[in-house]
Each structure stands twice: as structure tokens, then as C-alpha cells.
Design a protein that fits this description.
Chain B: It comes from Rurimicrobium arvi. The complex is a heterodimer. By secondary structure, chain A is mainly alpha-helical. Chain A is built from six helices and no strands. The chains are: A mainly alpha, B mainly alpha.
Chain lengths: 167, 99
């Protein structure tokens, strides 16, 4: 077992454990912290997959911007106590059973599939900013511009929704 | 490293996100579970991008991140607005559209 496989398993255990922590912890602030740790683990996986740009963007956008927004909202609502009423255990059991059933069904489907792909160890440069920028601004320039309009409308929408009523 | 390992990891993260969205009553936790599901899909796309040596999948991941950021901005604004109206983020209180 070489060093890359050891790092893979460490990151995998960290990602799944912290994802369970997000779902199971009672305090919403703890959930946010666990989610940030999950994002860091996923960024580590991106680095193992030679997606350096995605790793950095994942940390900046998700762990930096989005989770700070979540933390702000939680602190604004003063939710950092364990005051959340729980669903009945029957509903929780139904949630676990349906999620686990989906897991088993897809595992059964893909274990029969003929996936012979192997992620080889040699480094490629497809994840570098230079290569991604070439692809983004040659083939995908129209979706890129449209996503800027999406951002603008989302920004205006958030401001309009969050504004106090005038009456 | 076979591709199956990444498939199983992404699938586990996705199913944990689904369980979180079904089990919890706090709207913010449900939102975070949705983020978890989006990240599971992103990880699988990055793995296939490495496997096929094609950078288009990483562009898709980039666009998913863009959409997720816009979604979080609007969704959290809606949650703040709901909290201002009913002083709770419990999704069981928000079933008034039923009656």
C-alpha cells in the first residue's frame, strides 16, 4: 500500500465520518464545522485526482464563502442551542431505511456494471488553470456568460427577498 | 485505484445527504445536506475527469459550484425571511400550504 492509497483512505474516512457528523449532531454550529471538514476532505480528494484548480475553488467558495454565510444565518437566528425539536423515531427510521435502500440499489446496479476504469497514478495537467481556462473560454464561453446573468439575478433576488416589508 | 472506490465514496456521501434531508427538521441542516449531495456529485465528476483524461467534467464541476452558490444565496434569504415571519426554521411549521 503506497502513500497515495493511505492518503485516499484517510480522506475517505474523514469525509464519511464528518458527513455523518453533519447529519447527526444536534447543534447546528457543530453541523457547519463538520461540513467544513467534509469540504476539506473532498478538496484533498480533488488534489489526489489532479484537479488543483477545483481543490482551491472548493476551499475558497464552499468552505470560505458559503459556510460563512451559513454560520452568519445561524448566529443571526440564535440557533446555536440544542433547541431543535426532533422528528418522531418512525420518520427518522423511514429516512434511514430509504437512504440505505437507495445506497444498496445503486451498489447492486454498479457492481454488475462493466466498469473497468482505473484511475492511474501518473499526473496529468488537465486540472491546471491554464488548461481549464482554455476549455472554458473556447467551448463553454456561452454557459459561462449565462452563469454571470444567473449570479446577477440571484443577487438581486436575495436582496429583494431579504428586504423588510414596506408597509 | 479503481474507479469503483470513488463511486462508492460519492454514493455514500450522497446517501448520507439524503438521510439528512429526510431526518432533520431544521431547514438549515436540510440545506447543508443538499450541499453535501452536490459535493458528492462533484467528486464523482472529478474522478471521471481523471479517468478519461478530459477536462470538460471539471468545467461541469465549476458550473455546479456556481449554481450552488446562487442557490445558497437565495435559499438563505428565504430562510431568513421565513424566520422573520414565524420565528422558527422548523420545516414542520411550514406546512400551511397544505390547508
Amino acid at each position: 500500500m503506497d502513500i497515495l492509497q493511505i492518503i485516499f483512505w484517510i480522506l475517505t474516512v474523514m469525509a464519511i465520518g464528518c458527513a455523518l457528523g453533519v447529519v447527526l449532531s444536534r447543534n447546528p454550529v457543530n453541523s457547519v464545522i463538520f461540513l467544513i471538514l467534509t469540504f476539506f476532505a473532498i478538496s484533498g480528494h480533488y488534489l489526489l485526482l489532479n484537479a488543483q484548480f477545483l481543490a482551491i475553488v472548493n476551499i475558497i467558495v464552499y468552505a470560505g464563502a458559503i459556510m460563512v454565510l451559513f454560520l452568519f444565518v445561524i448566529m443571526l437566528m440564535n440557533l446555536n442551542a440544542d433547541t431543535e425539536p426532533q422528528k418522531s423515531w418512525l420518520v427518522q427510521l423511514a429516512g434511514v431505511v430509504s437512504g440505505g435502500t437507495l445506497f444498496l440499489v445503486i451498489i447492486a446496479a454498479i457492481s454488475k456494471a462493466n466498469l473497468l476504469g482505473v484511475i492511474n497514478k501518473e499526473t496529468t495537467n488537465i486540472g491546471l488553470i491554464k488548461v481549464l481556462g482554455q476549455v472554458l473560454f473556447k467551448q463553454y464561453v456561452l454557459p459561462f456568460e449565462i452563469s454571470s446573468v444567473l449570479f446577477l439575478s440571484a443577487m438581486i433576488g436575495a436582496i429583494v427577498i431579504g428586504k423588510k416589508d414596506m408597509e | 485505484m479503481p474507479i469503483q472506490y470513488y463511486l462508492f465514496l460519492s454514493l455514500a456521501l450522497f446517501c448520507i445527504g439524503i438521510m439528512g434531508a429526510l431526518m432533520r427538521r431544521n431547514a438549515i441542516i436540510i440545506f447543508m445536506s443538499i450541499e453535501l449531495m452536490l459535493n458528492a456529485v462533484n467528486l464523482l465528476l472529478a474522478a471521471f475527469s481523471k479517468m478519461y483524461n478530459d477536462s470538460a467534467a471539471q468545467i461541469f464541476v465549476f458550473f455546479i459550484m456556481v449554481v450552488a452558490a446562487a442557490e445558497v444565496a437565495v435559499g438563505l434569504a428565504i430562510i431568513v425571511m421565513v424566520y422573520r415571519k414565524v420565528h422558527s426554521v422548523d420545516v414542520n411549521i411550514l406546512n400551511r400550504l397544505k390547508h
